[in-house]
Amino acid sequence: MQLQKDSEGNILTVPVIAWGITPVAEASSLILTIQYAETLQELERGEVKQLQMQMTTQKALELAEELRKATSVILASGHQVH
Fold it and tell me: The whole model's pTM is what?
């Protein structure tokens, strides 16, 4: 997967404000909700956008494992978690 970049080659990111997980038992899946602001100005004004992504339990386990691996690499390099 390729990261999105602006015209100057900087990686585009948005601050994550909150997230939540809602199980969908009848579909053996879950909904991952991520709240974010597109700009610092939106964040300061309290303007929040939200993504709702449904995934299978298998995909959720894969995502959790990849997040764990990436976090372990960062922590092992001596960076602090804030």
Answer: 0.77
